[in-house]
Amino acid sequence: MIKIELPKPDLVIRQREQVLKPGDVEITPYHGFIDFHKITRDKGGIFFFYNEKNELLFVGKARKIRQRIKKHFEDNVSPLQNHRDEIFKIEVYEIEDPMEREIYETYAINTFRAKYNVDKVFFE
What are the GIY-YIG domain coordinates in residue numbering (predicted)? Predict the structure, then answer.
């Protein structure tokens, strides 16, 4: 048996209300996330979407993580298009090697049984 261990996430962002102090500038939420700007622009990796109950909704990979996550919130062909309002937490893992990304994504989808992944599913 092959043993795969996922790394710790490099970034975790959650939907939350913005608390402003005097002199603070309001950040426009991006689908409820105000820390979206912290997701790396130019690095590759994988990402996990969770709901408020901490159930895994979707696992994805990308050469440029922020752009790909944004597409899931904007695209009409995303498997999440009818479930975007369920996303409460996003975990981001920076993984530059494309083969490692592929392995981690497939492993996570099947081990944690991501609810809305349809490709690479080996469980029923």
Answer: 42-118
